[in-house]
Design a protein that fits this description.
By secondary structure, this protein is α/β, with parallel strands linked by helices. Helix content is 52%, strand content 13%. Strands 2-1-3-4-5-6 form a six-stranded parallel sheet, with helices on both faces. The protein is globular.
Length: 224
């Protein structure tokens, strides 16, 4: 069972999401919060697997709350669910460790799929934001936000793993990567896990930033 917490300053949004998500047999909303302070207090008591986080909330906004959660509870996954597609919000949410950034117009199916994807170690970005996110990754890579990796791990990357890194950096999902390089989705997921382990990185967001920083975003041959 996926334990979910919803942090949003609008009661209607919180309660609506709770009803909808509790209809999924593998999900349960175990807590809600109307601001970042409440969210942090609730996490201590309820230990959710994933937080659906609004951006603009009183007392402590969603971006700063994301930063605190990942600092103190790195195992908890976070999906930003908001009406705002502002560059600064996306930039900081991803920088601080959010695994997803969705606009509130997504369907129930898209949201539950995103939750499952993130829980399984993937990332989910609203399709309308993919181009913007790739641009932001490039900006993050040019900034002082440097991603450090395990040097020996870099030497041990296989050709397939390098292909996966390149395509993660382009913003592709595991399914899209699988189709691109003619592998099963499970094999792609295993390769991604191996890459993260070898490089000692937290998630695919860090991996994408590192790929751009180190020049691994040069086009490569997809053929086996």
């Amino acid at each position: 069972m996926i334990k979910i917490m919803i942090a949003d300053d609008q009661e209607l949004i919180r309660e609506s999401l709770k009803i909808v998500l509790n209809m999924s047999p593998d999900m349960k909303v175990i807590a809600t919060a109307e601001n970042g302070i409440e969210a942090m207090e609730s996490i201590k008591k309820n230990h959710p697997d994933i937080v659906l986080m609004d951006v603009r909330m009183p007392k402590l906004d969603g971006v700063q709350c994301t930063n605190l959660i990942k600092e103190h509870y790195p195992q908890i996954k976070i999906i930003i669910l908001t009406t705002f597609d502002d560059d600064e919000y996306i930039y900081n949410a991803l920088k601080f460790g959010a695994s997803g950034y969705l606009l509130k117009g997504v369907s129930v199916t898209e949201l539950t799929t995103a939750i499952r994807t993130v829980i399984n170690g993937g990332a989910m970005i609203n399709p309308n934001l993919i181009t913007k996110v790739i641009k932001l990754f490039s900006e993050m890579a040019q900034s002082n936000f440097a991603v450090r990796v395990e040097k020996n791990g870099k030497k041990n990357l296989t050709r397939t793993e390098k292909k996966v890194i390149y395509l993660v950096g382009r913003g592709l999902s595991n399914k899209e990567i699988a189709e691109k390089i003619n592998l099963s989705e499970g094999t792609v997921r295993n390769n991604l896990s191996s890459v993260l382990s070898k490089l000692n990185l937290r998630d695919r967001t860090q991996l994408a930033i590192w790929a751009i920083q180190t020049g691994m975003m040069q086009p490569i041959d997809y053929e086996a």
